[in-house]
């Protein structure tokens, strides 16, 4: 091998074993560079950074100044210089090379075989592309970069010196191309997966949007029916049912506007419900105090909203002389890192003497107890005739499996 080389960064003398044959040292250095490239690829480096790093390492491995990754653009039948080292400004990401049989890279792509040309000025198989001629390139070696099913392009090393590329150099270059090929396939799979996930997310948001609209329609129909009812008992029952449906619909509204459909901000959700809770209880004054960023699973947020709905309705119905006098405070607060406490209190006439929620025949209280059990919550209902009624519900943010 000639000692005349393009000026590039070479391995430091400390890296070489002085007792080894220079040719063996050279090949061992190539294997070390392939290992470095493999590590970069496994670390899931940014794809563009990986391509540029690969060209630097390959140039070092073949002791050449010029190296480039040529991406094949089938629509134009050209190669785009996607990454490279040694080239001047206006080349990377801009310059193109013909992909026909008249160029070294095109010859490799069309024949499916690697190409070594140590004397481009005498080459009969293809012409020398203008990019190579303008940079004084005298020899070139390239291999195909395989993509996901179709070739991604070509990995090419070029040199101005009069040395020669050998078959061993081709093995090194093919090793680098194989590593890049796996990274290209992984990138293709990842892009397809991300596109699929984005589509599923879009569909899920659309479903939640439609569910919200459908529930809103049902709630409106129930409300209209309640207004037309002649029985106060029927009117109340229909309004309560409408309020429950609105509570579920508001969750779906939040879900189609959110990035994460698995959890919901419970405090914000309760604040969204404030008007609905008030209207369902005959314009009861519902005052909500809740901190932000209390994230909870979506299904459990619905249960909590329905509990609040039932208790506000009960307060308006039983705690005050008229619903217009009704005032209910709803407070949410964290208890440590893993639990939340919900307090719902009115200021009315309090619970009747001997009231036991566990034996109550009222639908609202039975709903509250059933949902509290689902929440794995501790349930404490208190209230005398002079100081109103207070419910304390403590539950974990996440339910144990």
Automatic annotation (TrEMBL):
Catalytic activity: ATP + protein L-histidine = ADP + protein N-phospho-L-histidine
SUPFAM superfamilies xref list: ATPase domain of HSP90 chaperone/DNA topoisomerase II/histidine kinase (SSF55874), GAF domain-like (SSF55781)
InterPro entries: GAF (IPR003018), GAF-like_dom_sf (IPR029016), HATPase_C_sf (IPR036890), HATPase_dom (IPR003594), His_kinase_dom (IPR005467), Sig_transdc_His_kin_sub2_dim/P (IPR011495)
Gene3D superfamilies: 3.30.450.40, Histidine kinase-like ATPase, C-terminal domain
Keywords, comma-separated and alphabetical: ATP-binding, Kinase, Nucleotide-binding, Phosphoprotein, Transferase
Annotated Histidine kinase domain residues: 206-399
Enzyme class: transferase
GO MF terms, alphabetically ordered: ATP binding; protein histidine kinase activity
EC number, as in UniProt: 2.7.13.3
SMART domains (UniProt xref): GAF (SM00065), HATPase_c (SM00387)
Database matches in PANTHER family: ETHYLENE RESPONSE SENSOR PROTEIN (PTHR41523:SF8), TWO-COMPONENT SYSTEM SENSOR PROTEIN (PTHR41523)
Protein name, UniProt field: histidine kinase
Organism: Roseiterribacter gracilis
